[in-house]
Specification:
The chain is an all-alpha fold. The protein has helices spanning about 10-15, 20-25, 30-40, 45-55, 60-65. The protein is globular and about 30 Å long.
Length: about 70
Amino acid sequence: MTERQTNNVKQFREELLISKAELARKAGLSALTIDRIEKGMVCRMDTKRKILLALGLKLTDKGRIFP
């Protein structure tokens, strides 16, 4: 069984009008990783940090994306 987590990565990314590929490039991750996270797959804390910074957020904004 695969664990899932609700998050707002896709919603926030779309509000910024950036593609999965662009977010992946900015975060230093693969587009497949971004896709999996947007579908709710669990990810490491380091991956969350990279996504937050790539979205132009501060680490203190974590609750907006990963509630």
